[in-house]
Amino acid sequence: MAVQPNAAREPRLPLTRERVLRAAVELADTRGIDSLTMRNLGQELGVEAMSLYNHVANKQAVLDGIVEVVVGEVIAAVDEIEPLSDTAGWKDVMRARILAAREVLLRHRWAPDVLESRTDLPPSLVPYYDSVLGLMREAGFSLDLAHHAMHALGTRTLGFTRELFVTQDKDVEPEVAAVMLQQMAGRFPHLTELMRVVSHDAGSTLGSGCDDQFEFEFGLDLILDGLERLRAGAWSLPSGS
User: Fold this and answer.
1) For the segment 164-193, what is each residue's pLDDT rounded down to a tens digit?
2) In terms of residue numbers, what domain contains 34?
3) Taking phi first (over 0 means left), then psi (-120 to 50 degrees means alpha), and beta for anything else, what does residue 121 get?
4) Residue 150, domain member (yes or no)
5) What pLDDT score does 206 carry?
6) Do 102 and 189 reside in the same domain of the chain?
7) DSSP string, 170-204
8) Closest residue by Cα to residue 44 from 66, 61, 26, 58
9) Helix and strand tally (H, E) in the chain?
10) φ, ψ at 206 (rounded to 5°)
11) 211 plus 154 within the same structural domain
């Protein structure tokens, strides 16, 4: 059947701040954070870039906004974790919450860079950190120990960490790699030994031979185990500190 010239068209969704920010998140997810420009964002939404300024003041406002979106997803994921039922289970609850936050950030791999670029704590993160602190207090942490625990956990509470050095993996022929290791062996025997046995994780952001998820959980468990010993031992601030 032929379409009538005056047939009703499907109405265009109105442009809103939420729609702009959701499109910005999707753009960053699919094309990388560097692709997030007002022009590209307008193209994604099918509007002129100037139309966006009715909803977001500038690109920095967009970056602030996509942080809000991601933090909202983190809070929603963490809220799914069963609450603390007894003090002995605090570690399992904390671990589950942090790994739930990590799952969100793994969907938005650009998020850690944007979070760390903010000069002030995003307001949307205040209730999240309050809940982290509240979990420790409920588990019997002194305020002093909980304070130091927050520093020890750092960005792990949000599911990511930063390495001192991050290497960019390059494809190297096995024969070339073997020669390089042979040349290193005399000067750096311990590093060479390690490099000979580690397995390569192609998706790693830490570098060749590193399994991101394992390394994250390994460090997290070390910290949580240490905090549990301090909590159980009724730790107090050493004198003179």
Assistant:
1) 655 555 555 677 677 777 777 778 777 777
2) 14-56
3) beta
4) yes
5) 42
6) yes
7) ----HHHHHHHHHHHHTT-HHHHHHHHHPPP-TT-
8) 26
9) 11, 0
10) -90, -20
11) yes
